[in-house]
Amino acid sequence: MHATLRSGQFLAILNCNCIHQVPLRFTTRASAVPPQSWEWELKVYPKGFTSTSEDCRMVLYSNLILDHARPVEFQLSVVDDQRSLVTVTGRKNFCKNRYTADTEMEKKLSVADLTAPNSPYLVNDCLILQVALRPSD
Question: Do residues 108 and 86 touch, judged by C-beta distance below 8 A?
């Protein structure tokens, strides 16, 4: 799954003084039989919902209400046309009470990195995110 966030959208959010987020919604198929859709949301908090206003926090939300825990491995990458530029990975048990996973992207990427002139993290003024999810044992 690829999600593109145009830098104009991103920069408009950076100029705000209050808590803002950009939600990116997508659907996967659960590994259950019969097949079931699983709704996801990746929320990008470039400012306001972080320890400092320079963090670029990205949180993965499960929109499926689960009766029992389902372990999922995730990989979130900032990519360009040819390669992965920054990648974070993790494993999370998603359930009714624990439906989010902090990707900890802010430890590898800052708002300053994204807003720098000729930022290597933007492609044609776009931030391109790639999300990979897989069931875990």
Answer: yes
Note the pTM of the prediction, 2 decimals.
0.79
Residues 6+ apart with CB under 8 A from 88: 75, 76, 77, 103, 104, 105, 107, 108
Q: What tens digit of pLDDT does each residue of 91-129 get?
A: 998 887 888 889 998 889 888 888 788 889 888 877 888
Q: How far apart are CA 25 and CA 38, in angstroms?
A: 11
CATH of the structural domain 2-135, one choice from 3.40.640.10, 2.60.40.10, 2.60.210.10, 2.60.40.1890: 2.60.210.10
Strand partners, 23: 43
How many CA atoms, within 13 angstroms, populate the side-chain half-sphere of residue 25? 5
Question: Mean pLDDT lowest for which of 27-36, 81-90, 128-137?
Answer: 27-36
Could you give the CA distance from residue 126 to residue 114 in angstroms, rounded to a whole number? 10
